[in-house]
Amino acid sequence: QVELKPVQLLSAEDHLEHSLAIERRRIRLGYVQVFQKLMQESNKEGDFYTCEEKDAVSTEHTHVQSTELVLPPHANHHGNTFGGQIMAWMQTVASISASRLCRSHPILKAVNMFKFWGPSFVGDRLVFNAIVNNTFHNSVEVGVRVEAYNCEEWIQDQPRHINSAFLIFNALDDKGELLTFPRVKP
């Protein structure tokens, strides 16, 4: 790791932006702690979620998998895949997943907990898995996980988890009104 020099704050606006950046980081780190706590609690024996609503839709049919081959135009001069390219592929697969539930064209509203866990390179195969996690009246959350394989890893079925995110979508009906999403059953 390289130690960076402290930022020199010159104006009141610089001080404000610096303070806001510190607060955003604090919130991000808080999300990680909350997520880890939820995962620990959900792993307790006998603790599982059931949706008893008779109209609840199974999320099984919202699972979408896509595979992309990283080519030179998808990467920088070092051969690392552009983060924006990965984000675009993630948005596509998540949109298809959401559309299977709303039967419309979903509109991306937010991206949460977007995290790069590791790099990918020209020649890697990227496998994108998306599934609807939950619905919230007029919005739907889709989780996307990205795994990378080079040729050797592909043959041995040893993926590298390189990215995860939660994408939030809305959808509109023919009149431009927000669609209501059905309750889901995981």
What's the arrangement of secondary structure elements?
Layout: H1 12-42, E1 57-58, E2 64-69, H2 83-102, E3 106-116, E4 125-136, E5 139-149, H3 151-156, E6 160-171, E7 184-185
Parallel strand pairs: 1-7
Antiparallel strand pairs: 2-4, 3-6, 4-5, 5-6
What do we call the CATH homologous superfamily of the largest domain? Hotdog Thioesterase
CATH architecture designation of the largest domain = Roll
Q: What's the pLDDT, averaged over the residues?
A: 88
Query: What topology, given as strand order, has the largest sheet?
Result: 2-4-5-6-3
N-C termini distance: 41 Å
The count of DSSP E runs of length 2 or more, i.e. the number of strands, is: 7
Poorly predicted regions are 45-50
Rough shape? globular
**Computed Rg:** 20 Å
The CATH topology annotation of the largest domain reads as Thiol Ester Dehydrase, Chain A
Specify the CATH class of the largest domain. Alpha Beta
Number of domains: 2
For the largest beta-sheet, the strand count, sense and barrel status come to: 5 strands, antiparallel
Q: By helix and strand content, what is the structural category?
A: alpha+beta
- The number of helical runs is 3
Give me the strand/helix succession.
HEEHEEEHEE
Strand content: 25-35%
State the helical fraction. 25-40%
